[in-house]
Amino acid sequence: MKKIIGMGLATVLCMGALTGCAEKTEVQESTVFIEKKGEIVSVDVENLDKDYYDAAELEAYIDGHVTDYAAENGENVTKESFSVEEGIAKLEMKYASCEDYSAFNGIELFDGSIVAAQAEGYDFDTEFYSVTEDAGVGQAAGKEEVLADDENKVAIIRANVAVQVKGKILYVSAQNTEVTGKNSVRITGEGANEEAALTYIIYK
User: Fold this and answer.
1) Fewer Cβ atoms within 10 Å of its own Cβ: the N or the C terminal residue of the chain?
2) Using CA atoms, how far apart are residues 151 and 204, in angstroms rounded to an integer?
3) pLDDT tens digits for 24-83?
């Protein structure tokens, strides 16, 4: 996640130093991919000032964080690729589950059925709008409409990031959410991820 690169960069600054799936790593903004079978892939894209970072130290920091996590939680998080080109850092990570993604990054993430989300305490108490067949903005939708079909799935995240799901998006929460495709959204709130609104993405 952006947070991991940011943490590593901050560490490098404090010290005074300053190959994965092509389809995913070609993204131009930080993106969370919600895969089938519960896996999560993230690609973090960060602009870095050449005068204030050391790419080798930054990658070593990331590798150390992965090793530390594995020691306590098993090998559920892997670094798929890391590169710095023309001041742009890209980090692709793979997580065995939403829980691993959240624990590793400190960012809230859920993916599952609407019923399971409600059992976890998510109340869906926000404004929604529907998504049209051509991935446009549809009509405002009430909570009852959004929850009507128990077979639909929901991804819930608290972060300002792009998100792709393995399915067709039906509804999204309205706050700071832009639909960018039939299976993708961009969350554009201000402030740090910890201050982001909770975004709901209902899909099938």
Assistant:
1) C
2) 8
3) 878 999 999 999 889 999 999 998 876 667 888 889 999 999 999 999 999 999 999 999
